[in-house]
Amino acid sequence: MKKIVVLTGAGISAESGLKTFRDSDGLWEGYDVQKVATPEAWQENPQLVQDFYNMRRRDALAAKPNAAHYALAELENQYDVTIITQNIDDLHERAGSVNVMHLHGVITRSQSSINPLLTYPIAGWELKMGEVCELGSQLRAHVVWFGEDVPMIIPAARICQQADIFILVGSSLAVYPAAGLVNYVHYDVPKYIIDPKIPEINRIKNIIRIEEKASDGVPKLVKELLTGDPY
Q1: Which residues, 6 or more positions from 180, have their beta carbon under 8 angstroms from its beta carbon?
Q2: Which of 75, 150, 169, 192 has the greatest number of beta carbons closer than 10 A?
Q3: Which helix (H) or strand (E) holds 160?
């Protein structure tokens, strides 16, 4: 069974109505990311950070998977599929995808403030101050903040090396270290890039460009991969 590795970015979640941070203006839902998405912000005003991620969690739970999420889940009927996502929502899982790796954490879980390996499911959308882990430290969103290490990047790179087919969806290839994952894919592996605005990429070989939004381009590509009919 061929191995497909899919890397998804903000574009696929945006089509489900979720506004995801883009580094053009340094704002996320009107907030300065330095005030809500850094370890320093947590130290300075933990209540503000907790409230911010509670709102993001509420929005994520209210959102629904779109056609791109469901199409990617269908690939598992004929392929060994791993989805590596930069997104912190759980839309891939709710669409039916089984093997999903979250590079930046997932907002439906909490983690210990002193040991990020201790994570817990969250019942509902609200994580309150005073809720603590088994070590007694305050629980925070299970999200990688700016300035923190991305612990899943090395396992993700190993998975990319195994790809027979690589698909990139909804990413501008601007956010590192995730954007560097494509460099681990073997040079002769077909690399499909699906995005309305695909940047010029001369360093990557064997690219097939599909300049469409995710909910249009992904179902067409999946149909081709499952049936052999060109999209």
Answers
A1: none
A2: 169
A3: helix 153-161
Q: Which residue has the tokens 């460009």?
A: 209
Q: Quote the Cα angle for 32-144-58, to 5°.
A: 70
Class of domain 20-62+109-143: alpha beta
Q: Residue 31: what residue type?
A: Y
Joined together, the tokens standing for residue 190 give 């077909």
Per DSSP bridges, beta strands 100-102 and 119-121 are: unpaired
What's the rounded mean pLDDT across residues 92-119?
Answer: 97
Per-residue confidence at 230, pLDDT binned at 50, 70, 90? low
Cut 0.85: pTM above it: yes
Distances (CA, A) of 65 to 61, 73, 164: 10, 11, 26
User: Per-domain residue ranges for the chain?
Assistant: 1-18+66-104+151-231, 20-62+109-143
Active site residue 104: yes
Which residue among the candidates 92, 102, 104, 142 is catalytic per the annotation? 104
Mean per-residue pLDDT, 170-180: 70
